[in-house]
Write a structure and sequence with these properties.
The protein has 169 residues and is mainly alpha-helical. The chain is built from 8 helices and 3 strands; from the N terminus they run H-H-H-H-H-E-H-H-E-E-H. It has helices at residues 3-10, 18-29, 31-40, 44-48, 58-82, 93-100, 107-127, 147-167; strands at residues 87-88, 136-139, 143-146. A 3-stranded mixed beta sheet has the order 1-2-3, with helices on both faces. The radius of gyration is 17 Å and the shape is globular.
């Protein structure tokens, strides 16, 4: 890992205050309701419709968000909190969608599992001491990141999917 990046992290760069962290986690807590409203407002055909051949339908977004929550963020949060400089694997969403055949999986189960996983991840993140935000690891394809930076990536990931889901309307 980059020594200059380590020095920056040790100085506390990009670590939110406790209030800022609470706001960021509260923002992440809103995604399940947004996703549930999107699902409830569309019929099955609309949930399965893809805006483009290589884009996710709403049904696929639900399952992808479930998978990234369980296989990505849950593992990454816990690894950063509990291990010394862990390697955090990237996930290939397109590959996951093809392998798991999202459109064949029950939508309601995917949504319920996403909601449960998000609640668990947020409870875990809220339970951590504030200084844990400086803990660092290596995120595949990104480089050295702190737990605070992982939370930012998580928020940005949600925002991107929220925009894509809104565009499906």
């Amino acid at each position: 890992m980059n020594e200059a990046k380590y020095a920056e992290l040790e100085r506390g760069a990009s670590v939110p205050t406790k209030g800022e962290l609470r706001e960021r986690l509260d923002e992440l807590a809103r995604m399940p309701a947004l996703l549930a409203r999107a699902v409830a407002s569309r019929n099955d055909a609309a949930r399965r419709a893809r805006p483009e051949p290589d884009a996710f339908s709403l049904h696929e977004h639900v399952w992808y968000l479930r998978d990234i929550e369980v296989q990505g963020y849950a593992r990454r949060l816990r690894a950063l909190a509990n291990e010394r400089e862990p390697f955090l694997a990237d996930l290939d969403g397109t590959r996951l969608a093809a392998e798991r055949r999202y459109l064949e999986l029950p939508l309601e189960r995917g949504l319920a599992e996403f909601v449960a996983a998000r609640e668990s991840n947020l409870a875990f993140a809220r339970s951590l001491p504030h200084d844990a935000l400086r803990r660092r690891g290596e995120l595949e394809g990104v480089g050295c990141i702190t737990l605070a930076e992982l939370i930012e990536l998580w928020r940005n990931h949600d925002a991107g999917h929220a925009d894509e889901i809104a565009a499906l309307a």
